[in-house]
Predict the structure.
Amino acid sequence: MALDPVIKEYGKKFIKEYRRVLSAIKRYDRIAIFRHTMPDFDALGTQLGLATWIKDNFPNKEVKVFGDNHVTFTPRLYREMDSANQTWFKEPFLAIICDTGNTSRIADPRWKKGKFKIKIDHHPDVEHYGKISIVDTSAAAASEIVVNMLLNFKGNYFISKEAAFYFHSAIVGDSGSFKYSSVSRHTFAIAGELVSTGISVSEVYQKMFLKQIDDLKVTAYVLNHFEVSDKGVAYYVLDAKIQEELKITTERGKENVNLFANIEGINCWCSVTEDVKDHCWRVSLRSKDIPINGVAEMFEGGGHAQASGAKLNSLNDLPRLIEELGKLF
């Protein structure tokens, strides 16, 4: 089938980089794929999708994926990450880093040992790294960029159902199920190509958003303890004691943040979760339409216009965060 013109047109701006990436994949027999720590759907889906694609099309290559496993996505949705001793990293290998704007967030520091490094991302390019850098902040997901690249490669290559499953979950996750403003015709065109491989869209959604009965207790707590400022900023706080009572980890604190999407009178919303290990409070920020990443940057964070992360060193900083968000409205 002929490639959708919108996919071809998108790929033109990166065609030189695409050729160099394909050349690097062909050149190295050992390839390691990395992404950011505390991974989300896009980080894991893009990482595993790309690893699967390489193994499908270059079966003789050794491909590994590194980083921390997710507390709930693994193994429900994604397989476990690979392990390797230090000797593996002594031989030359290609390092591909996906969905990570700055090096401090890369989950495994051994990416630095890569002989040749490639960055593919859709976050603001706050730190330029890698011999090849493909960054497009207009893309809804890093997966969207990677799949465009694979479809524009010259050669007899294919995307298997397994790879498509991973890539599609990544796009669904970072596009808010195709509801965020970053979604474009190109996003849908890429999703269409992935669906055409024969994947079950309903299976993707069921595995992504499966909940346990105990999860309802967390939702109930959030609905009974959230606050809304006079400017329409909704937020909830989960300290370490509450996390223990609800039997959740710090990483899961943000899972209920989108309960407040599409609620009249709420302009933006956030979760605030205590991280005892790092002595801080993790914040996930969301907005209907007004960009909130500028405020996130004021609190040691950043991200996308309507979906960002931040950090509070003390809960005493929370009123200032809510105030700064309120100024947007």
User: Anything to note?
Assistant: The longest strand covers residues 268-275. The first helix runs from residue 5 to 12. The chain has a mean pLDDT of 96. DSSP finds twelve helices and eleven strands in the chain.
